[in-house]
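[Automated response] Your request has been received and processed.

Submitted sequence:
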Amino acid sequence: MQTILLIENTGDILGNFTLYLEMEGYTVLKANNGKKGIELAVECMPDIIICDVSIPGLSSYDVLQIIKESPKTAVIPFILSASTSEKVDTSKANKLGADNYLERSFDPETLLGLIRTEIKKSRSLTLHV
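Generated structure:
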C-alpha cells in the first residue's frame, strides 16, 4: 500500500483529503505543521508529500528545502498545494526541488492522477540510479 504524507493545517481540508485518499486505498500520514511533517517524512518515508503553501511555523518552502536537501528524503516527490486565493512562488519552488503544484479547486481525479504520475516518475528515477 502506498503512503501519502499530507501537511495541512486546515482541519476540513485535511479531513476531506484523508477520507478521499483512504477510500482510494492509500495510507495517509497527517501533519498540521512543517516541523511535524518533516519528522514524519524522515521517520516513515512516504511515497509522496503534499504540503499546503500556508502552514504555520516553518514555511512550506522551508519544509521543501529541508526534505530535498536530506539524502534520505530527497527522492520523495513533493507537491505544493494552494487554494485559489493563495499563490505558489513557482520560481522559488522549482529552485528548491518541488515536483508539482496543485490548486485546491481540482476534481478528485486530478489529485489521484497527479499522485500516480509523481510516484511513477519517482520510482522510475530510483530504478535508474
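Summary generated for your ticket: The first helix runs from residue 11 to 23. The CA atoms of residues 27 and 118 lie 16 Å apart.
If you did not submit this request, please reply to this message.
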